[in-house]
Amino acid sequence: MTRTITIDPVTRIEGHARITLQLDGRGHLADARFQVLEVRGFEQFCVGRPFTEMAGLTSRICGICPVSHQLAAARAGDKLLAVQPPEAAQLLRRLLNLAQILQSHALSFFYLSSPDWLLGWSSDPARRNIFGLMAADPELARGGIGLRQFGQQVIERLGGRRIHQAWAVPGGVRTPLAPETRDWILAQLPQARATMARVLDGYKRLLDGPLRHEQRSFGSFASLFMALVGPDGCWETLDGALRLVDSRAQVVASALSADDYDRFLGEVLEDWSVLKFPYYRPLGYPKGLYRVGPLARLNVCTAIGTPWADAELADFRGRGGTPASGGRIVTAAFAYHQARLVEIVACLEGIEALLQDPRILDRRVRAHASLNALEAVGVGEAPRGTLFHHYRVDDNGLLTAVNLIIATGQNNLAMNRTVAQIARACLPWPLPASAAIPEALLNRVEAGIRCYDPCLSCSTHAAGAMPLHIELRDASGALLCETVRD
Amino acid sequence: MTALTLTIDGELLAVPPGTTLLQACRQEGVALPTLCHLDGLQPVGACRLCLVEVEGAGRLMAACLGLVAEGMVVRTDTPQLRAFRRLTVEMLFAEGNHVCAVCVANGACELQDVAVAVGMDHVDLTYQWPQRPVDASHPRFAIDHNRCILCTRCVRACDELERAHVWDVAWRGSHCRIIAGLDQPWGSVEACTSCGQCVDACPTGALFDKQETCGERQPRPQRARLHRGGLP
Q1: Rounded to whole angstroms, how far apart are CA atoms A423 and A417?
Q2: How far is it, in rounded angstroms, from Cα B185 to Cα A322?
Q3: Is A460 on the interface with B (CB under 8 A)?
Q4: Does domain B4-77 have CATH number 3.40.640.10?
Q5: Is the pLDDT of residue A462 over 50?
Q6: What ipTM did this prediction achieve?
Q7: pTM: predicted TM-score of the whole model, two decimal places
Q8: Which residues 115-174 on chain A approach chain B with CB closer than 8 angstroms?
Q9: Closest Cβ opposite residue A166 in set B134, B211, B214
Q10: The CATH fold of domain B85-227
């Protein structure tokens, strides 16, 4: 008899989803699925709205990474106006994005994921959270909360509020940077650096000890990695071109323009999840699995470009780099966590460098123009990976089509594969039909998803008639009826 | 007669003949909520927010239209009036699509201010979620019918101040809406001088400058200067 094991809901992620493990008659894993159950629908209801609203509208998609959507929308708006934002505006947008990546990574690492390994995989689930962390390691919890607070305060001081601001607009940003704000941010950096030094030191000790196995094997498989890189191949979060590398460190494609994303990225809808499955088109579906986000950005870039972050990047590659890639590419999904810490360091150094550039105080921060193009793609690196906003507008600037390709969606194939791999590795196969599975083992499967820090509220906007498959089963699992919509 | 005397909420005051009840209330320092009223434009009594009780009248009166008469006894703040005002504002919100969070006028919206003033913290009525278009055919401005409360301030500003009469009111009931020209795209109406006075007059974000993004509208005095080329 077949058996289904369901983890519902998956906790400590942003959004609602469940994991389904389908067993065959002999108790072996037949299929593993990460099923996303909520629909947001922004692609549909934004149609008919003025494109100038999109930065404010799409920032409402998410309370964690509103800045990413705001920036992608503003950048698409730049192209519709056919303007280049003033230099200060470009620097300020970059500053905003670094603050956003910093605070989101701090949230993922300290609040959502670290309780698993700091409190123990098998610790009481009721305490396996940020409050449990506060009780067990108050200094670390305080440091993590402080880092997130710093990122949020930078966002607030730039745009007037911590979440759902609409400061970045087509053509630039709304207000210039005041010297007092620059000085305030600079004054906070030493404490943030000190916190990160402590956190990195502690986390590396864990990687050398209790997490040695997870760092190497958790969700480790060959795949493509995609991210933006600068002209010199360096780590990039806003401008630059797209590059894909494979697990052997071979550059599969480079200098790709986001404007042509449809040429190299395809999207598939499955009937059991509302989250789309993007894939690298030349390899087809599902072979064209690729990963985005902190792990991908560190795998794709040649260097970060700041001293401390580059040293941490070398450590990251030294620990997890696969022999097949000459130690250059890290394939284990668990390494997403260390990658986030490396990126927080990169953000701190990047913020400091930007604020020391006198051009950032220039008062000219917005270019004005009327509509000059009817189609545009805005792109940026969100904390979770590359984010695309693709708009088509009519002659009056009202949207006629919207496509949002979200980082979490791009990691969808990888998340499903990670769940299957961890389930195979962690659960005692074959499973007897009636055997209870320890919660700690199921938590490891769940933690495989948390590596990717998925944001499902951001990523479920499929428009039109979505394929749907509804099954009605009785208590014994027998199929009573089903409805399929293609 | 050089002055008329009346009582507003128990306070006796004298006003010149021809004074409206709204003017008398303001003179007395009574803040009556209004949306369709704009000083300098003919009053129409469309929004019904300035209703007051006049002893012996037998019905509620719109203060913006009613003229003061000798010996009037007026009450502006009774449980019935408070309930009516709140219900009126609730109906405005339920009838249109007012999404403050992404509106150009968020923070500088008279409808928002009135909702706060009457204590409308939620809407009991069923939202209608009408399907309404945005007309962005004008080179500088746009009208979002989702946010229109049919106060007709734009119609009167265009007609009485600019003398262009681009705007009018068409259809009836829930289909009633503001139209440009003979129900044409705004950008195709040759009578429009692009003066922007309709945009200045709009109490919500229904009429807006296409350069403005979410929450970017300036409060009224600054906005009026904006469209007069920065002149005071």
Answers
A1: 10
A2: 62
A3: no
A4: no
A5: no
A6: 0.87
A7: 0.89
A8: 164, 166, 169-170, 174
A9: B214
A10: Alpha-Beta Plaits (3.30.70)
